[in-house]
Amino acid sequence: MRRIDFDFYKPLMMIVFLWTITASVVAGGTEELTSLTVTEAYTLSLNRLERIQISKEEYRAAEALYWQSVSAIFPQISFVAEQRFQNNASSQGGGGSSSSGSSSSGSSGSGNQTKQSFAGRFNIQQPLFKGFREFNGAASLKSQSHAAFGDYLRARQTLYYDVADVYFQLLGHESDIALLQAQQSTLGDRLNELKERVDLGRSRKGEQYQAEGLQADVGVLLEQTKGLRAAAKELLAFLVGLKADEFQLKDEMTLPTVEKLEVYLWKSGARPDIRAAADRAKSARNDVSVRKGEFAPEINAEANYYAVQDPDSNREWNILLTGTVPIFDGGLRYQRVKESKALQRKAELSLAEVTRRTESEVRTAYQNFISSVNQYLKLQDAVVIARENYEVQKKDYLLGRANNLDVLTGLTALQDDQRRLSSAEYQAKLNMIALIIASGEARQ
């Protein structure tokens, strides 16, 4: 059998080994980035931001308070075990603090037995009438719960704008960087052409310096924009809960046809914060009824069923009805009514303020959106004109009818209009979201 020469295959094996290691490293370092639309970024941020979770927990706490108030309407049932020690046998009373019936003094020689007693009883307490304070209090807390839920929904809506604001800022910076890099590339080609013309004596050295100066300015602006992009991406990463190098943006939003202003004003009446303010005003009115109910008499019922008694006094159950009529408290209840009426007026004023502010926000957002769309349409025409001007200036320069400054000016104007067009597009989309949020139509 022929012997295999491993020394011959060692270099080949080493190449295969290194290729395998390199391929695995490259494959591990090219993880696919998560593409995010503005809606997807908003959805991620809902589960990440603490302020949304805090608002949600506030609603849950308000709802729990409502159910606590409801429990006061139902009877309270408990089992009470009592062990009594008394210093005088004749004062023995059978066990229950609210029980009634005769007490036995016991016969001679049994004093040690009657000086202590034990009772186990089921106790039921039921309020019968408190001036409807329980019902009005429960209604007040129910309205507070609805108001907290409205705050939570509005916090979700305003978060949509916060995420969209950063999202479109980042898109704008990325678009600016692409346009500035294209401008640098164009200026580089222009500069190479000028250098050749200078060497041939067909252009002045000053024209080359003009192009180099403009290229340097574009480079500075490019670095500034990269810094702004990095800051915006870190902020968006904080909002969505991802690392800055784990996602990229995917803009799929289009500008819709705008409706009439009156439509948005009509829709804004159902905004969550307006409903929350209305619920708080309703809660304040119920609080006034609660305070007024403190002037009414209070009637309560209590029942006891004795399951165990030692010594046995033959009292298996009893019922106790109590009535309390307020007479004088130094004006405390009267001042509470005044306080609740003042808070009711405050809540009603807050509702009026929120309603007026909402109308103003809708009108402002509507005008901003219309203005940004008009700017976007005008800038589209401006970009077309600037591009034609730049092409004409280049042709005239080759024919000797224009100088280098004219060409550079035309190029700069074209690039500036392109950047303004990109900025106007993203601003129009952001203003559209602002209008939707102002009218209360945003995602909840």
Please provide a written account of the structure:
The chain is of the alpha+beta class and 444 residues long. It has a single domain, classed as Outer membrane efflux proteins (OEP). Helices cover 66% and strands 11% of the residues. The strands form 2 sheets. The chain has a 4-stranded antiparallel sheet with strand order 2-3-5-6. Helix 2 runs parallel beside helix 6 (205-240) and helix 3 (50-71) runs antiparallel to helix 5. The protein starts with 5 loop residues before the first helix and ends in a 6-residue tail after the last helix. Residues 1-6, 8-13, 15-30 and 91-112 have low confidence and may be disordered.
Kindly report the name of the CATH homologous superfamily. Outer membrane efflux proteins (OEP)
Q: Helix and strand succession?
A: HEHHEHEHHEHHEEHH
Largest sheet: 4 strands, antiparallel
State the domain count: 1
What is the 3D form?
elongated
- Helix percentage range: 55-70%
Which percent band covers the strand fraction? Answer: 5-15%
What is the CATH class designation?
A: Mainly Alpha
Mean pLDDT: 82
CATH architecture: Up-down Bundle
Low-confidence parts: 1-6, 8-13, 15-30, 91-112
Instruction: State the secondary-structure class.
Output: alpha+beta
Please report the total strand number as a whole number.
6
Rg, Å, rounded: 41 Å
